[in-house]
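Appendix B, Record 12. Input sequence as logged:
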Amino acid sequence: MTQRRASEARRDRSSLRFLSLIVMISSHLSPGYWSSNAPCIASAFQIQASVSVPQQLSTNHNDVDKIETLVKDKLDRIATSYQTIHGEKLRRTVDVELELCHKIEKCFMGANAIEDESTQNLLLSTKLKEKKCRLEECLAVNDRAVHQLLATNSDGGQSSSSLFHHVDFITSAAAAAGSTSVGEYDDLGQLMGNGGLVEGGESNKETDGYDTALQVIHHTARDWTHGAASCREETIMWIVRAIVQYYTQDRSSNDGPHHPLRALIPGAGLGRLAYEVSTCRDLIENRVMPRVEANDSSVTMIFAAQSVIKMLQEQQHESRQLQSAIHPFLSDPQVNEIDARKRFEMEVFPDQHATDSYKYYHDLTGTNPNLSFTIGDFVSTYSQQSKQNQYDVVATSFFIDTATNIYEYIYMMKHMLDTNGIWVNCGPVQWHPCALLRPTVEQLKDMLQVAGFDLISWSIADEAVAYRHPDDVGGAGSEEARYTRSEAYRPLRFVARLLASQDDDGNCNDEDLALKIQYSEFLNEVANGKIEVN
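Logged structural output:
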């Protein structure tokens, strides 16, 4: 219901254009694609970080220990906030309802009537008492899951000694256009990224925005539970099938015995799309070895994704089932509910399909999937010259409508893709509230063609797809509708191939893309009224 709107906040570029914290979490253990060496577990998925700062600031903020402390403190705050903020809010709501219900029922029915055993089970107050008990049980389960996903000690997800294998400080590609004050960015904490702008400002981002415990639960449920499989089938798996179809169709034996596929997944969230591409059986059987890089603006999401993938890795090497429980619907808004019992339904993660995919990949190659994560603003990070022509595939799922300026996204794709590379997309065009350009589907189609893309596949899904779970909508793939009103999407699906430029006037040269991005950022600020031009 509101999960989609909440998750949109993650990619508000206004709050992140000065940020590019690049964290690479690599679980690829061998320099060869078909290693016969005995498998071993990577040491906490070695993490490399590159923190970019505004051009106005010096780059002598090189205290790596402070960076790691800030990240650990942030993840600990968010994990703790599940009970102290979200849990307390739910408890207060139920307590107020229960107290009011007792008084109203006594007023209208009388004390004798509400104590009658034949009617007690029908009273709303009785059901609220049951809800209060179930609430405590489910809050405890979710709290354990969040702490597991965001742990930064030896008992949990991350290494207690070091979160980052290496940290570099670089100058941001997207400068602070027209800004005259850098005071708000003096704290290194502002450079770590927090998943977008939310109403109420910086202090609310870890309670109301994308970087929250609730969003960790919602995205874990969507990406890594069996219940959401039918939703993934129509979105994530459509993208994977399209990559297999359109990337492998032109490959031949002349490409070598094992052809690497360089893929980028912007807006990766909890990482399931990146994981599915990196372990795709159809690609591997076509002798295409995926090398996948996932990007997201949230430290929280990436470290949670790392924890899930480590569970899969440990399952493979320790030959034991590792799953955790969550109650993903517990904090849903209390409106339009059909059956209160569905609020307390449980899911487990990771799902069996994810486990099987990991096992297949490892059994066939003797290594772990070649998967890395990058935390930071998409445009600021990938507009750098070093990213030009570096990817064969860019895959976007529920991402393009997060753009402040969609032209930036389009030309970023053109910058990153190698000649004949493909951009595969699946998702709505529900433009973010901070979007300055909001083209229709048909207008977007024209924009891509003008930019030099050949649209080899373009369609809108015939049926609406639930964002999180099929029961949120009802119908196909659903046991029973959860709500009287639902939120679903008919995603735009396209595959666009980057054509070789025929221009001779230098327009194909993207070496100055970073400067164009800076100017675009300046124009965005002018359009937002943040900069006055005389």
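Residues 121 and 127 are 7 Å apart (CA to CA).
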